[in-house]
Design brief:
alpha+beta
Length: about 60
């Protein structure tokens, strides 16, 4: 990430939202949650347990 965090500073102009699909591994989920706590540069970041729900949310976000 080069010290920029999860999302590079200028990505908010192009990227509005992203869906993060959790791994079934508990430690991976905890790592994901910790990563998202550090911010997403103004981009809406939401976690999901499956890709179908994630895709539906992204489509609803427009």
């Amino acid at each position: 990430m080069g010290g920029h965090g999860l999302v590079p500073p200028d990505a908010g102009r192009r990227l509005q939202a992203f869906a993060w699909v959790y791994s079934p591994n508990l430690y991976s989920k905890l790592s994901t949650d910790q990563t998202l706590l550090h911010g997403s540069g103004g981009v809406i970041a939401t976690t999901f347990d499956n890709s179908d729900t994630a895709m539906a949310w992204l489509m609803a976000m427009g």
